[in-house]
Amino acid sequence: MSEEEMGITEELIRMFEKAEEIQMWKPPVPVGFYPVNIPFYDLEGNLWFNKDNQDYIWFPTQGQLQEMAWAKEYHEDNIDHLLMRFYTEIHNTPDFNWGYWDMFRTMEAKWLAFVMRTRYNKIWNGKDWTGVKEAKK
Predict the structure, then answer these.
(1) Using an 8 Å Cβ cutoff, are 8 and 40 in contact?
(2) 66/126 same-domain check
(3) Cα(39)–Cα(33) distance, rounded to whole angstroms?
(4) What's the domain range around 31?
(5) DSSP letter string over 70-104?
(6) Please, what's the b/e burial string for 91-117 (b: 16 or more CB within 10 A of its CB; e: otherwise)?
(7) 54, 117: one domain
């Protein structure tokens, strides 16, 4: 499966690489030899990108990103609350430009942006994750 078929773009790679808070949650880096600059799945089903045989970027699934959002916001067993918060955040963002959410072309990118916004108060400026106040300047 190609990067394009997997929905992996250079920007998405950069977004996950720069999301240091998300990379802290990553599972152990797989042992073995993997091709450089090509996404791959490990035996556990985790998606990785081998940048240079030393830096492995982890691409959490939507479910893993939802668990990260859930861990901060909710203590009940009702996913509807999380989904409502996701929908509300995307369609009702008074802090910054409406077009912000339009730049994320995949659900993984939208969920990553949601977790970074709600859990870490950071937004994507096209190059890096910045604090919301920094991004307004």
Answers:
(1) no
(2) yes
(3) 13
(4) 3-59
(5) HHHH--SS-HHHHHHHHHHHHH---SS-GGGGGG-
(6) eeeeeeeeebbeebeeebbbbbbbbbb
(7) no
Helix, coil or strand: residue 109:
helix
* 36, 66: one domain: no
| Residue keyed to tokens 């950069």 | 14
Decide: 62 and 111 in contact? Cβ < 8 Å: yes
What is the per-residue pLDDT for 72? 59
| Same-domain pairing of 85 and 55 | no
Give the H/E segment covering residue 131.
Answer: strand 129-131
Residues 55 and 66 in one domain: no
CA distance 83 to 88: 8
Give mean pLDDT in consecutive 10-residue pieces for the chain, a chain of 137 residues.
63 94 89 80 88 86 86 63 78 65 87 91 94 61
Residue 52 sits in the same domain as residue 73: no
119 touches 21 (CB < 8 A): yes
For the whole model, what pTM was predicted?
0.79
Same domain flag for 27 and 48: yes
